[in-house]
Write a structure and sequence with these properties.
Elements lengths: L4 E4 L5 H12 L2 E3 L3 H11 L2 E2 L3 H7 L2 E4 L4 H10 L9 E4 L5 H12 L4 E4 L2 E2 L1 H7 L2 E6 L2 H11 L3 E8 L3 H29 L4 H8 L7 H11 L10 H17 L5 H17 L8 H9 L5
Parallel strand pairs: 1-2, 1-4, 2-3, 4-5, 5-6, 8-9
Antiparallel strand pairs: 7-8
This protein binds NADPH dihydro-nicotinamide-adenine-dinucleotide phosphate (NDP).
The site of NADPH dihydro-nicotinamide-adenine-dinucleotide phosphate has 26 residues, from helix 4, strand 7 and helix 6.
Length: 293
């Protein structure tokens, strides 16, 4: 069945996902900053909704990709009169489980389904249509969301009820953050000892310490001094906060993740809202008085 898709949030990762959806199914889009929606429509042929309310009125399935669950809740509240029974909200935001459960309950009261569907794989994965997507929600809504998500995903896993997708995404990103911090600190020390970064990475990447951070992020972004901005450090700091909450609520020790949250929070204050997540390593380099290269 072909469904009318409405997409809200044409940011760094929303844009490439929406591009795949437009190509495969066609879609109506809305973005807070209208200029971005206009540029996207000119490039893809997507239709622009005049407002979020109009988008919700015209769509069967609404997809959101916003910074946090707070903005998702704001959009749902602002469009409340437009929702009707049988519609579905698929939230691609890396959100927080508690707010998502709340939004889902509110929508369920008017017969609207909710699936949390955070993604992993970065902007390059989104462009290639190779993202990993973790779905949280009731099976019937998840099965409705799946063929749409397939437009930009290589791996799609239904992980549990509403909120579990967001919990899993937060834990995944906490592992990313801990990895960036630990690799940055360890490599800074090795370079100070006279080991070139390329040699250190050659060994680590053939050993048990390797990860996406050492195999891709540091060689491509730090050693080259390219520092591209694809995923804001502020958003990773937000994800760490969600992960700390998830661990605390489940009464699990959270020492490593709490420490990463503190370090990324301090870097966010120093580097600002637009810095990329890998730029944490700039702070480590400055404190150590060395460049990892
Ligand atoms: P961006 O900051 O690039 O984009 C955010 C989008 O949300 C923009 O379209 C922005 O509109 C819109 N927005 C912000 N505030 C509001 C609001 N109050 N009301 C309506 N719209 C609003 O973020 P990303 O695209 O990078 O990230 C989006 C989500 O995806 C986040 O949860 C992030 O953690 C997650 N994510 C990001 C990845 C990445 O590599 N970038 C990877 C995996 C997940 P405007 O144009 O007006 O600013």
């Amino acid at each position: 069945m072909s469904e009318g898709i409405g997409f809200i949030g044409l940011g760094a990762i929303g844009r490439p996902m929406a591009r795949h959806l437009v190509k495969k199914f066609g879609a109506v889009v809305w973005n807070r900053t209208e200029q971005r929606a206009r540029a996207f429509a000119a490039e893809t042929g997507a239709t622009i909704a005049p407002s979020a309310v109009e988008l919700v009125r015209s769509a069967d399935v609404v997809m959101t990709c916003l910074p946090t669950s707070r903005e998702v809740r704001e959009v749902v509240e602002a469009t409340a009169p437009a929702w009707r029974s049988g519609q579905l909200l698929v939230d691609l935001t890396s959100g927080d489980p508690a707010t998502s459960r709340d939004v889902a309950a509110r929508l369920a009261a008017v017969g609207v389904g909710f699936v949390d569907a955070p993604v992993s794989g970065g902007t390059s994965g989104a462009e290639a249509g190779r993202l990993t997507v973790m779905l949280g929600g009731e099976a019937r809504w998840v099965e409705q969301a799946r063929p749409l998500v397939e437009a930009f995903a290589a791996t799609i896993v239904h992980v549990g009820p509403v909120g579990t997708g967001h919990a899993l995404k937060a834990v995944n990103n906490a592992l990313l953050a801990v990895g960036i911090q630990a690799a940055g600190e360890g490599l800074a020390a090795l370079v100070k000892l006279g080991v070139p970064a390329a040699k250190a990475l050659e060994v680590i990447n053939a050993s048990s310490g390797r990860s996406n951070v050492t195999e891709n992020l540091i060689p491509q972004r730090v050693v080259t001094r390219a520092w591209p901005r694809t995923f804001r450090l502020a958003l990773l700091d937000k994800d760490l906060g969600i992960a700390v909450d998830v661990l605390r609520q489940t009464r699990v020790a959270s020492e490593a993740i709490v420490m990463a949250k503190r370090v990324f929070g301090e870097a966010r204050k120093e580097l600002g809202e637009e810095a990329d997540h890998v730029e944490l390593i700039k702070v480590i380099e400055r404190q150590a008085g060395v460049e990892i290269k």
